[in-house]
Specification:
Helix content is 59%, strand content 0%. By secondary structure, the protein is mainly α. Helix 1 packs across helix 5 and helix 2 crosses helix 5. The radius of gyration is 21 Å and the shape is elongated.
Length: 205
């Protein structure tokens, strides 16, 4: 076989093996994403990405890691409120689950990981959380302002200032944790302390 023939065979082997190695590495990445982190990543997709487009659109993509990195970077450039830690988690999760070799119909997340656990009575029985209003202002700005407007005066989502739901804490918590109507569930994104802090800030408005 001529040198050019060997070169063509070599390039063909690299062309076949290269993508397989990349996809195997991406699938291996999923093993490093714990159940809690995977649920947090899904929550971030809803909280950060669905402000502009549906989570279904994200799930339809099959991109290599470099393309996911570029996509998340573009979202940040367009104003998505994503911290460095959230960026790392999103890229790691998206490239591991929605890579070019992933099937068109992926199994539900809870078939691969445990389901998110709602706030339990056991947690509540430890005593009510004391919200810190000063901290809640920043958490609201980072997570809620895109829909509910600056200073919670309303936007795409309803105004929260001086609304009756603030006096119905059970309903407030239920809505934030599990969603209601067009509002997605935030239980996998915000901690109980985060929610208590947001509530404490809202009632001071």
């Amino acid at each position: 076989m001529t040198n050019s023939g060997y070169s063509m065979v070599f390039l063909l082997v690299i062309g076949l093996v290269g993508p397989a190695v990349v996809m195997a590495a991406q699938e291996k990445d999923m093993e490093t994403v714990s159940a809690a982190l995977a649920l947090r990543a899904e929550g971030l997709i809803i909280a950060r990405c669905s402000v502009c487009h549906s989570a279904d659109l994200v799930a339809q993509q099959r991109l290599p890691r470099a393309r996911w990195e570029a996509t998340v970077e573009k979202m940040e450039h367009w104003g998505a409120e994503i911290s460095n830690d959230e960026t790392d988690l999103l890229v790691r999760y998206l490239s591991a689950r929605y890579h070019p070799g992933a099937p068109d119909q992926l199994p539900p997340l809870d078939s691969e990981f445990r389901k998110a656990e709602p706030l339990t009575q056991e947690l509540l029985s430890e005593g009510p959380l004391t919200g810190v209003a000063a901290r809640g202002a920043g958490i609201f700005e980072h997570n809620c302002q895109a829909c509910h407007g600056a200073m919670a005066i309303g936007g795409m989502g309803p105004k929260l200032v001086k609304t009756p739901i603030l006096k119905q804490e059970d309903l407030f918590w239920e809505t934030v944790l599990h969603g209601r109507g067009a509002m997605p569930a935030w239980g996998s994104v915000l901690s109980p302390q985060d929610i208590a802090d947001i509530h404490a800030w809202l009632v001071t408005r």
